[in-house]
Design goal:
The chain is of the alpha+beta class and 92 residues long. Helices cover 28% and strands 15% of the residues. The chain contains two helices and three strands. Helix 1 packs across helix 2.
Length: 92
């Protein structure tokens, strides 16, 4: 089973690409949370498990992570882009 780990930094508008943002600025949001990431992952059609104590390697404060399972048919980049789009929809 393929697992992808998705961190809030991937979607954070306050970060640059070199600081870990993985989506374009038009898809990035202010202060993304693991809860809304997990909800967006489920909307895309995958299973999500929140790990609240995880820390992204380029950060010092733990903001958590979301472990996404069942992604054998998609790349991590496609997954992150789709999740970012849903986070934007959830915030409207």
């Amino acid at each position: 089973m393929v697992e992808n780990v998705v961190y809030p930094a991937y979607f954070d508008a306050d970060r640059s690409r070199s600081e870990g943002r993985g989506v374009p600025m038009d898809l990035a949001v202010e202060e993304p949370t693991v809860d809304e990431i997990a909800k967006a992952v489920q909307q895309v059609g995958y299973d999500a498990v929140i790990e609240r104590e995880k820390t992204y390697s380029r950060e010092y404060e733990p903001r958590g992570a979301v472990v996404v399972t069942g992604t054998e048919d998609t790349s991590k980049n496609d997954l992150v882009q789709a999740v970012a789009a849903y986070i934007g929809i959830l915030r409207e």
